Every structure is written in structure tokens, then in C-alpha cells.
Amino acid sequence: MQLLFDFFPLVAFFVAYLVYDLYVATAAIMVAIALQIAYQWFRHRKVNKMLLISGALVGVFGGITLALRDPLFIQWKVTVVNWLFAAAFLGSQLFGTKTFIERLMGHAVELEPALWRQLNTLWVVNFAVIGALNLYVMYNYDEQTWVYFKTWGMIGLSLLMAVGQALWISSRATDRSSDRGS
After folding, report:
1. How far apart are CA 127 and CA 121, in angstroms?
2. What's the CA gap between 7 and 1, in Å, rounded?
């Protein structure tokens, strides 16, 4: 169910694009993310920081796209979000006591500090590459190709990263059940 919730704005964007155009799709993703934020707030009395950042950027870049009738801004939003996440993950590694990925997953996975840094670095690279790929597609292909890439290509890349992360973790994580039995 959480997966459907997470992809709701993307699906709304894609369907609105197929039925109408990029401007209606931009408005649809803005409304969908606003609904996600409202739902999280009313349900949990807090909102995920990554969702808030993404929502704010969709609001700003989407608003500029609609006001100026220029799709370049909503297209750039994808790169800006991914590069901000890359910077946040990198910053947590350079300046924090725990990496960002350890804060997100540390309750469920036990890794050595060096392995948390390696995993965090994988996420930095992932976000940086997705941001760069977005620029490549938006400047070298037509709008429809970019929409399909944004929707399905990024889902595919995210799934590849998740599977790769799971395999990476399973080959390195400490088995907590054997620690408890000792």
C-alpha cells in the first residue's frame, strides 16, 4: 500500500499527460503531492522531510512552469531534487555522526560504520546519476520521451537501486538472530 501511496503523484502526472498535456500533468502532480502531504499530516501529525522538500520544489518549479508556460522548469525539478538528495546524503557523510542512510535504515539493519558510508555513497552516486540522466534525456529527446523516462525509466532505476541495495546489504549485514542466540 505504501508503494502505491509513494507513486501516486507520478501516476497522476503520467495519466494527466496522456489525457491532456504537460501543463495539466504539472498541475496534477502539484495537487497529488499536496494531497500526500496533507494525508501524512492528518494521519501522523508529521510529514516526511523528503516529501516536504519534493513538494516544495514541485510547487515552485511547477508554479513557474504553469505561470510562464515553459516545460523546462518542471523538467529541471527532477534534476534539482535528485542533486539536492545527493548533496544531503554526501553532507551527512562528511559532517554528521551518522550517514543519512543509516538514520533511515539503522533500526532495521546492522552494519559496520564503514559499510554505512559505502552504502550512503552508493545513494549519492544514484541520485547524482539520475539527475544527470534527466538532463541528458530532456535536452536530447522530445517531451514525450522525457515524460516516459521520468515515469517508467526512473521507476526502473529506483527498483534496480532497491534490489541492488538489498543484495548488497544481505551480503554484508550482521545476522541479528545469531547475535541474540549467543
Report:
1. 10
2. 10
